[in-house]
């Protein structure tokens, strides 16, 4: 099982409809063949929140996730400018893979190991 974390920095996208983003992720999570667990973590941070997914198909999940989040005309551009997306590596979070970063200067890893 591979964990994915989407960290959305709300201060970087003031016009972003966070409810629409949560709803898009919740709809994606209904695909039980692709998503085994889905959680939104909002407590403890004022400037960002995390959306967590567990999947047994990391490559397929990343393809769908990137389409749902970034290619959407409603919130795609805002999310590209406000999100960091990571997934676990072969040793869990000890060697995580950075799949997207709002800062284009950050080196991006390839998805996925499994």
Summarize the structure in words.
It is a single chain. With 114 residues, the chain is of the alpha+beta class. The protein has a domain at 1-49 and 85-114. It is 26% helix and 33% strand. A hairpin with a 2-residue loop joins strand 4 and strand 5 (92-101).
Topology:
Elements: E1 2-9, H1 18-29, E2 37-41, E3 48-55, H2 58-70, H3 76-80, E4 83-89, E5 92-101
Antiparallel strand pairs: 1-3, 1-4, 2-3, 4-5
In short:
The protein is α+β, with helices and mostly antiparallel strands and 114 residues long.
Please state roughly what percent of the residues sit in beta strands, choosing from under 5%, 5-15%, 15-25%, 25-35%, 35-45% or over 45%: 25-35%
Instruction: Note the run of SSEs as H and E.
Output: EHEEHHEE
- Number of distinct helices: 3
Basic shape: globular
Task: Calculate the mean pLDDT score and round it.
Answer: 89
Q: Provide the structure class.
A: alpha+beta
Estimated helix fraction? 25-40%
- Uncertain residue segments: none
**Strand numbers in spatial order across the main sheet:** 2-3-1-4-5
What is the total tally of β strands?
5
Largest sheet: 5 strands, antiparallel
Instruction: State Rg.
Output: 13 Å
Features:
single chain; 114 residues; 5-stranded antiparallel beta sheet; alpha+beta; 5 strands
